[in-house]
Amino acid sequence: MAYEIDLSGRAAFITGGTRGIGLACAHLLGQAGASVTIAGRSVQEGEVAVRSLTQAGVSAQFVALDVTSEEQVCETLARSASESGIDILVNSAGVARHRDTTNVDAELWNTVVDTNFKGTFLCCREGARHMIAQGRGGAIVNIGSISGIIANVPQNQAVYNASKAAVHMLTKSLASEFAASGIRVNAIAPGYVRTDMTKGGLENPVWAKIWLDMTPMGRVCEPEEVAQAVLFMASKASSYITGEVLTIDGGYTLR
Ligand code: NDP
Questions:
Q1: What is the residue extent of each domain of the chain?
Q2: For labelling alongside 70, which of 3, 117, 137, 206 has CA 20 to 30 A away?
Q3: Helices and strands in the chain, H and E counts
Q4: Does the pLDDT value for residue 11 go beyond 90?
């Protein structure tokens, strides 16, 4: 029996949708029929991303948004909800910082925790408020990380790791809380994905060797491979799955 994921008539809001994993999600959800709103801070990158989506036949728009600002998150998601509704929320906005913990300062802590944890929390809260008001349920997919499960090496990034563990627990807590409203909440925990975030590490032969040696499949993940899992979690194909943290890491966390 042929099975096709069809998101026609669904509206997806994707933070961090201007590049990397978020943009790959926008392409795939859009190709499945959803209209997509991508959000990020850089207007220039957002406009380029919307052009690439439109050229691929996706109904797409960009909104400028800094997820660390509660005011901006509230305003932007309210506007999006009133214009198109929000059926699917993908939280991909995130930042990684590597530094030995004894040198971590308030600036690093605030940047990482406010973007990865607070930003994801705020978008989940506002997204859920609108989904509940719309009365037709919804799907939230948070991008966590294997860094929320294991302590990466050789780079030290304790604050990032803890922020991603927080995203995983937030996902489970919200899945439990919002289930009665028909909102499923899941997370994806990718290993190393080829994006701007990992460019420096992959260009460092020492780091790249360690990362790849520790990955049974012996290669990094492409953003589209994460997007396929997001599409699954955003669609009816995962209709009885909630509170799951789906690891996509080429086997990294097996060892
Ligand atoms: P990129 O750096 O390629 O993209 C990050 C995206 O997040 C951009 O669109 C960026 O846009 C946006 N963003 C960053 N800060 C903010 C902010 N304050 N407000 C709004 N948007 C913001 O990273 P990836 O695509 O690789 O990462 C996406 C997610 O996946 C992150 O949560 C990351 O932690 C996670 N992840 C990545 C892995 C990897 O190996 N790449 C592995 C595991 C998890 P702008 O800067 O214009 O705001």
A1: 11-248
A2: 137
A3: 9, 7
A4: yes
Residue 223 CA: nearest ligand 1 atom is 25
pLDDT of amino acid 18: 98
Strands 35-40 and 11-15: parallel
Q: Is residue 247 within 8 Å of 221, Cβ to Cβ?
A: no
The reply to whether CATH 3.40.50.720 applies to domain 11-248 is yes
Residue pLDDT, tens place only, 239-249: 999 999 999 99
Q: Which two tokens stand for residue 82?
A: 């009133």
Whole-number Å distance between alpha carbons of 197 and 194:
8
Annotated catalytic sites, by residue? 160
Q: How confident is the model at residue 149 (pLDDT cuts 50, 70, 90)?
A: very high
**88 CA from centroid of ligand 1 (Å):** 18
Residue 14's SS3 state is: strand
Q: How large is the angle between the packed helices 119-134 and 70-83, nearest 10 degrees?
A: 30
Closest ligand 1 atom, residue 146 Cα: 43
Asked whether 50 and 36 are in contact (CB, 8 A), the reply is no
pLDDT tens, position by position, 168-190: 999 999 999 999 999 999 999 99
